[in-house]
From TrEMBL, chain A:
The keyword Ubl conjugation does not apply. Pfam families: BPD_transp_1 (PF00528). It is found in: Cell membrane. It is a multi-pass membrane protein. This is Multiple sugar transport system permease protein. InterPro entries: ABC_transporter_permease (IPR051393), MetI-like (IPR000515), MetI-like_sf (IPR035906). PANTHER family: ABC TRANSPORTER PERMEASE PROTEIN, INNER MEMBRANE ABC TRANSPORTER PERMEASE PROTEIN YCJO. Keywords: Cell membrane, Membrane, Sugar transport, Transmembrane, Transmembrane helix, Transport.
Length: 297, 292
């Protein structure tokens, strides 16, 4: 105590800062940084949880890149991203743009769009899975049948299964994007629109020349945020294809499901770790690329 | 002549303005109608889930939203099964503790990084921020190894420990502490409060909306978390609600009314929370989204 009293104010601050940060620093080192290093290390080793960890160099990566399943999975993962991000952003923008102009029941309609965001992905995966069942079980096919339209084999077809699994993911995230877009729209000063009206600029030009450029920070945030989400899709796939995880014929399997399978069904820890490093790299490259491209524009 | 002319044009102008206004209100009505229909479509999965959970098996394949013979038999069946109650309390406990930890630690770290000057501040900030780039999926294998080495598998602590602090929350809180004037803290310091007291009694109350936003995000995230609880739990007693629901649904196979009941049980709490705190939640989401 005597020593503490003799410290200057700025020295006391240093003591307090490090004292308060001590536990969090330990946490971040033990639960974030050490595991990250361990995952990278493990990706160069071979280990089935029982024996010893053997150094194998780049074997896991070589094996991964020559595995046709990996490339299938890699393609699926990007398909989720390429289908999911643009369609959900476009939908969300159209909804937000029009909802922003409504006063009557504005809050209620906003709540309707936002409600799915509060649900759990697992619960909703089962609801949607039920919707996709063939006649006479599923809602969608029953509706199609009432209008005499041929059935769609949603989850049983290699072409329809992936978009079918993607739909609830887009649906659940849409409300969040709408809310963020509306906040972005509100932040645009009205004076720009008044100036546009005085200059007689058409509605379309107002949209493309004023609204969208000024929304750029919002768009960048949502693109990166939702891309990361789609690249990490797991809950929906796992729950909608429990009878054949990632099926049919691996047509819906994303990278995270492959990681889960390799690590916790085959117990091939080194190989799974290599897959996580690839996932990490993909996330990093995609977000940095998007930030770069969108900033430049 | 000239006078009636101007009268005529002014009449025409009024008529024109009226028709323009009518057109605008028509457009506005169509806009309202489409958005409202879209909104109804958005909640249809939730509505179907709830309605089916009150149906007898024979009625499940009907598309009617209001059951002809409503029943709570599905709920009594699912609750008598007993496991759901345990999964529910597990999830509630885990989400609550994790939320409290995040609110305390994230704001403490955010506060220190925002309001103190000390050597190493920038490095620590960047280090914590950089963990945002590391996906959970990369860490689950090392976490699993760590848990199995320390005997944390299949325990509450094992489920909770990875999420007790988040870089997202720390960053969010740091942003909000920027809005707290340093003079307030200085005044408290002169009044003889120690640093912990200043943080808790002066700074924290000023960022209450941000704390609420953080709490909502963390609670929802943990309530719905799936992959880590799936990995770290072995026995059914330790399952969280999403993991339990998966197991239960796989067992129930084609008994969709039971699956919908299980799904409803895990969804209803967050829906109620949303309906009660709607305004705060949406404001919180905007805050977290734009500042985080």
């Amino acid at each position: 105590m005597g020593i503490y009293k003799r410290l200057s104010i700025s020295q006391k601050q240093i003591v307090w800062a490090w004292g308060l940060l001590a536990i969090p620093i330990v946490f971040y080192v033990v639960v974030r940084f050490y595991p990250t290093a361990n995952a990278i290390l493990l990706s160069f080793q071979e280990w089935n949880l029982l024996g010893s960890r053997n150094w194998t160099g780049f074997d896991n990566y070589v094996k991964l890149f020559s595995d046709p399943t990996f490339w299938k999975v890699f393609g699926n993962t990007f398909l989720y991203l390429i289908l999911g991000t643009p369609s959900s952003l476009l939908l969300a923008f159209v909804i937000a743009f029009h909802l922003d102009k409504l006063r009557f029941m504005h809050g209620t309609i906003r709540a309707l769009y936002f409600l799915p965001f509060m649900t759990s992905a697992v619960a909703m995966a089962w609801v949607w899975r039920w919707f996709y069942q063939p006649v006479p079980i599923g809602v969608f096919n029953n509706t199609l049948a009432t209008f005499g339209i041929p059935q769609i084999p949603f989850l049983n077809s290699t072409t329809f299964a992936l978009p079918s699994i993607l739909a609830p993911a887009i649906w659940a995230g849409l409300g969040f994007q709408v809310i963020i877009f509306m906040a972005g729209l509100r932040a645009i000063p009205q004076t720009y629109y008044e100036a546009a009206r005085i200059d007689g600029i058409s509605a379309w030009e107002t949209l493309t020349e004023i609204t969208i450029p000024l929304l750029k920070p919002t768009i960048v945030f949502l693109v990166v945020f939702s891309s990361i989400g789609f690249l990490r899709i797991f809950d929906q796939v796992f729950n909608m294809t429990t009878n054949d995880p990632g099926g049919p014929l691996n047509s819906t399997k994303p990278l995270v499901l492959m990681i889960y399978d390799t690590a916790f069904n085959s117990f091939d820890m080194g190989y799974a770790a290599a897959q996580t490093v690839v996932l990490f790299t993909v996330l990093l490259v995609v977000s940095l690329l998007q930030l770069r491209v969108m900033r430049d524009k | 002549m000239a006078f009636s002319d101007t009268l005529d044009t002014s009449k025409k102008a009024t008529a024109l303005r009226n028709s323009a206004r009518r057109k605008r209100s028509q457009a506005q009505f169509i806009r309202w109608l489409l958005l409202f229909a879209g909104g109804i479509a958005m909640i249809m999965p939730i509505v179907f889930m709830l309605s089916t959970s009150f149906k007898y098996p024979f009625e499940v394949y009907n598309l009617n939203l209001i059951p002809e013979e409503p029943t709570i038999e599905n709920y009594t069946y699912v609750l008598e099964d007993g496991r759901f109650f345990g999964w529910f309390t597990n999830s509630l406990f885990i989400a609550t503790i994790t939320t409290i930890c995040n609110v305390l630690f994230d704001s403490l770290v955010g506060y220190v990084l925002c309001k103190y000057t000390f050597p190493g501040r920038y490095i620590i900030f960047i280090a914590i921020l950089s963990t945002l780039m590391i996906p959970t999926e990369m860490l689950v294998i090392p976490w699993y190894l760590m848990s199995s080495a320390f005997g944390w598998l299949d325990t509450y602590w094992g489920i909770m420990f990875p999420g007790l602090m988040t870089a997202f929350g720390t960053f969010l809180m740091k942003q909000f502490f920027e809005t707290v004037p340093d003079d307030f803290l200085e005044a408290a310091r002169i009044d003889g409060l120690n640093e912990l007291q200043i943080w808790w009694t002066v700074a924290m109350p000023l960022v209450r909306p941000a704390l609420a936003a953080l709490a909502i995000f963390v609670f929802l995230g943990n309530w719905t978390a799936f992959i880590w609880p799936l990995i770290v739990t072995n026995s059914q007693e330790m399952y969280t609600l999403p993991v339990g629901l998966t197991t239960f649904s796989v067992e129930a196979q084609v008994e969709w009314e039971l699956i919908m009941t299980g799904a409803a049980i895990s969804t209803i709490p967050t829906l109620i929370v949303f309906l009660v705190f709607q305004r705060y939640i949406i404001r919180g989401v905007v805050m977290a989204g734009l500042k985080g």
